[in-house]
Each structure stands twice: as structure tokens, then as C-alpha cells.
Amino acid sequence: xxxxxxxxxxxxxxxxxxxxxxYERLLEAAEDLRDSEIAERSRREIEAGTxxxxxxxxxxEMLAAKSPLAFWRKKRGLTQAALAxxxxxxxxxxxxxxxxxxxxxxxxxxxIADALRITVDDLI
Length: 124
Known about the structure:
CATH class of the largest domain: Mainly Alpha
CATH superfamily of the largest domain: lambda repressor-like DNA-binding domains
Number of strands: 2
């Protein structure tokens, strides 16, 4: 560990002087800690079933789908009519959103996401 020097600023604030190398080492350690916390939170969410993972095949299927909505609706085993009934959104409008012809409002996308048990981010 590098030598650290404590000083007092003219206004009385205690400060620390250290080498740039030591400062960068501390920044790296803090970043590693944040990464570890994120990884641990993700592990707990996966174990609890609150985080859903996709297989390689599902990711390929999602990328090939007309839209994320089309992928998630099919993954959940729903027809457009069933999703329309579950959300209160007209089936024709769902079809237009799924085909990319209409964007859908934030409120509509929230209803759809909730019915599919995903986030709005998963739809856009």
C-alpha cells in the first residue's frame, strides 16, 4: 500500500494526499465491489424466480421476431385475442403494435407488459 498523507485545508477540512496509482487502485476496488453486488443481486433474483433467463435459442427467436411483443406473446402461449382480453386492449390495436405499425401509448404498453409478466423495457 502506498503512503498516505493527511493534511488540513485552510478552512479546516481534513484531506488525504495519495499517489495517483493508489487512487486508481481504490477506484478499481470500488468498481469491483459494485460489480460483485450487482452479480449477487442477479443471482438472488434468478434463484427466487424473479429474474427470467432466455436460452440462446429464445434470444435468436426474439431477434428474428417482428417485434418484442410478438416474441413475448408467443413465449407466454397467448393468442392476440387472449392478450387483448387480458389487457382490455383491442386485438386489432395489439396486432398493429406487434407489427410495428403503431407504437402504443405508455399506458397501453404497461398493461401489455403486466399481462405478459415482463417490463415495458422488454417491449421496446
